[in-house]
Each structure stands twice: as structure tokens, then as C-alpha cells.
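INFO batch 0412 | record 1 of 1 | parsing
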Amino acid sequence: MSAADRKLVLVTRRTRLEELIGKYHTLAQARFYIEHLGADFGDYLRENAAYAASLQRCVVALQAWGRHQVVERSFLPNFVFGRDDIVVTLGQDGLVANTMKYLDGQPLVGVNPEPARWDGVLLPFEPTDLGAVLRDVAADRRPVRAVTMAEARLPDGQRLRAVNDLFVGPRTHSSALYDIELDGRRESQSSSGLIVATGLGSTAWLRSVVTGSLGIAAALDGTPRGEEGAAEQPWDTPALTFVVREPFPGNGSATSLVYGRVGRRQTLRLRSRMPENGVIFSDGMEADFLRFTAGIEAEIGVAPVQGRLVA
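INFO prediction complete | emitting C-alpha cells
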């Protein structure tokens, strides 16, 4: 397939204003709700206008290319990407993560819709860059950063990948009950769930959990805290890090297997003991989940493919 024949897929997201209008049906009702809370509705309007302008610039670049398709984020779980597609996201860092986990090695271009508003660690490009970047990607003239992903697998064939982290636990604020096994070590646990993080996710949710644990330990023994949180890891680290949140020591629950690494040839095995509300979701997207209730077994390990983020 020639470069010109490759299809471009642009993944978009709804703005805060669009989410509000979807909930309250009209612009006037959305304005009333925000202003009633004392917030600046003008900021919602400015963000929406900036996103619309960036989207228009991206669409112009795609139209100049030829074959293209625009997909809203909520359709990603059921969208089928072609092997030779070039994928573009227009949104925040979270949109890059939410898109990458559905890809199978296709190059991903992260575009920042409003650099003055969003820092965008995963968004090296602006809409005005897109035309030139796409030509370089199609000709393999752009460097690509490899991103290790996590993958949860169920016996019935269901799979869910994560770019930052997987959460395993209760959908509601209740105890997570499960058996955990790694390298022959096995125990039953009761906690508020597990986080399994990638190298990219080492400075996200994982860092918050570890920082909190270190702070509590320091407060209990009176030792001043040093460098807080989990150490940042390279994005392509061929291993995952798991941490158990708030493990509870009891007659039927142990707390010795609460932190560790899962290498490329290792598997973290979990068996649910939750009668209801048990789930596995990734990268903060609770709407896209695997059911993890009593008797279901899950295997978690390094995904067989890596994400490819254009730099």
C-alpha cells in the first residue's frame, strides 16, 4: 500500500460545554447550571470555541490527504482500526491513552487543541503541524516512542489493555475480595483494590498511592520523608508495577503480597471473591470495563504489542 492510500483516523472528544448540553439539553440550561454554581461560563465557551477551531484545522489537513475518518472517543471500544491506518488524537493526554490501548501498533499522533490551556506531555504537535507531520509519518521520517501497555485477560477471551494503569476492585466504595498469585506466592486479600501500572503510568495513580503510603509510614514512626512516590520509569519498561490499596489484615485476608513487579514473562493471577460490583477498568475509563465477580479469574501481564507515539 502506498503512503497516499493509507487511511487517517482522527479521534475527537466532547468538550465540557458539549457534555453539559448533552446533560441539560440546551445552552441556556447549561449556562444557568454553571452560573448558579458561581463558575465562569465564559471559560466553557472559550474552550469550546478553541477546540472547534483546532478541529477545523485538523479536518482541512485530513481532507487534503484524502482517505480519512473522524471518530468520537465513546465509539472507540467498537471501532475497528486498519493495520495501515495513521491515527490522530485531538484532545488531552487522557485521549491519547484511551486511544492507544485499542491500537495494534499503528502510529499515533497526539495533537494539542489548546496549548495555552493544556500542558500535554503526550501532545507534541499543534493543528498547524499536522499536514507536515502526516507526510513524515507516512514516509517513516518521524521518530516513534515505544510505550509498554498492560493487559488483563479473562478465560472467555475478553481482554482489556491499559496505557497508564489497570484498576481491579469494586465499582462502589466497598471492599475488594480476591485471591492473588505471583511466582507461586498466593494469598487471599481484602482491600480497596489493586493498581497495576506501566512505565508511562509510573508518575500517575501509582505515584499517588505510593506517596500516601510513605507519608502514613513516616507519620507513624516519626521518620522525616525523603523523596516521595514511586520512581519514574521509562515508557518502554518491559515490566509492570502493582500495588494494593489499603490492604486489610484479618483472619481471612493477608497483607504480604501488596507491592511488586510483573516482568514480561510473568503473570499476575487474580480470582474474584466479590459477589457483585467487581470490575477491571483501565486508564480511568470506568464505562469500558471487564466484569470481575465471584469465580472469575484474570491474568494480568505485559501486553504483547507496544503503543507507538509519534515524536
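INFO post-check: Residues 3-142 form a domain with the Rossmann fold fold (CATH 3.40.50).
INFO record closed
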